Amino acid sequence: MPVFAANLTMMFNEWSFLDRFDAAADAGFSAVEYLFPYDEKPEAVADRLTRNGLTQAMFNLPPGDWQAGERGLAALGSRFDDLTASIAKGLDYAEAVGAKRLHLMAGLADPRDPAAKEAYHRSVVYAAEKLSERGISLLLEPINPRNMPGYFLNNVDGAAEFIANLGLSNVKLQFDIYHCQIIHGDVSSRLRKFIPMTGHVQIASVPSRHEPDDEELNYPYLFTLLDELDYQGFVGCEYIPRGHTLDGLGWFRS
Ligand SMILES: O=C(O)[C@@H](O)C(=O)CO
Ligand SMILES: [Mg+2]
């Protein structure tokens, strides 16, 4: 069975952010992930991880001004200086919490625009080098256009091709099964094809993005497939509980 990481941005919202670490550990998780830790001090996050014996599976590098609608800076050529600063900040947190994977969000830009493509390439190469100096993998995640309209990296096959062409050993695919099902379908054949370049997997039911125990996808089958494919990374539980987080953990316990 894969190692599951509770997503503390979506799950355990009944608790304050720092208390979610305790709640996840009490519920049986050995690892956690979240979008952004930047409202807390790195030492405070590290303390919760240590106290609870939790591993930090991954988190996202700062995405620009999220409240103002930004969804990453990598494809925005005019924001390269902000991007370099955001990588430095993310690396400070990664060092404090011992994270070995960081997700770089692409931003809102037309994927056919040559200037956006060039900016994205430059940003990814820059980030990959900075992260490799610390032994950290850089994750790139295709996101479906229904949840994030206008997002640059909106196609799993295209992202995989980009990573393969780049040929940098620490650049990996963040394979969010929820997004893949909405964008393309045919999830299991894509897992078979792309697992060697996958650094992180995420799950949720489709289409509701609730617990991975119902609706379009057969998760028990996909978990067995991940084992068959010898996937060694974490599986992030990036779903919005239907009710109380603890009441929705039947799939996890079984
Ligand atoms: O799937 C998602 O939405 C996340 O993994 C993310 O990083 C951006 O929201
Ligand atoms: Mg995701």
TrEMBL record:
Presence of the UniProt keyword Protein biosynthesis in the record: no
Active site: 141 (proton donor/acceptor), 238 (proton donor/acceptor)
Domain of life, source organism: Bacteria
One Pfam match: AP_endonuc_2
Record flagged with keyword Isomerase: yes
GO MF annotations, alphabetized: hydroxypyruvate isomerase activity
Assigned protein family: Belongs to the hyi family.
NCBIfam families, sorted: OxoTetrIsom
Name listed for the protein in its UniProt record: Hydroxypyruvate isomerase family protein
The species this protein was found in: Allorhizobium terrae
